[in-house]
Amino acid sequence: MDTFNGIDARYLSAEELAQKVLDRNKSGFYTDTPALVKANFAQWKNIRFVVGSIPETLDFVQTRQIAFLHLDMNCALPEAAALHFFWDRLVPGAFVLLDDYAYKGYPLQKKAMDEAAKSKDVRIASLPTGQGLLIKPWRS
């Protein structure tokens, strides 16, 4: 799932706009060519690409059980929405990797993900890479 168009400004908070996160859209930071990404994944046959912004594309997800979820949207609202959406689909023991969780320059993502994790009664481990790791507990 990707916009293939950079960060969607509609989902940015005033704080994120003030931090100029949209400047990344202009810098070539994001790929805008779905065909190149599809070519990278060509050897795997059970892949479905969903182009568009989260949270509005979440309903296109058909997968019912997820063992690994990697969130890297560089935007707090969509990342928190994705965690909430996928939570019940995560199998017990599933890993959730949060790419920019404690990375310098992304305090709003950390705050949003901490709040989302708290609502699920779990905690996020801060990794030395700046990423966050959450493991879905075996309890229901």
Please summarize the sheet with the most strands: 4 strands, mixed
Number of helices: 5
Q: If classified by CATH, what would the architecture be? A: 3-Layer(aba) Sandwich
Anisotropy-based shape: globular
Textual characterization of the structure:
- The protein has 140 residues and is an alpha+beta fold.
- 29% of the residues lie in helices and 15% in strands.
- The chain has 5 helices and 4 strands, in the order αααβαβαββ.
- A 4-stranded mixed β-sheet has the order 1-2-4-3, covered by helices on one side.
- Helix 4 (76-87) links the parallel strand 1 (66-71) and strand 2 (90-98).
- Helix 4 packs parallel to helix 5 (107-119).
- The longest helix has 13 residues, at 107-119.
- The protein is globular, with a radius of gyration of 15 Å.
- The two termini are 27 Å apart.
From the structure above, extract its key features.
5 helices; 140 residues; single chain; globular; alpha+beta; Rossmann fold
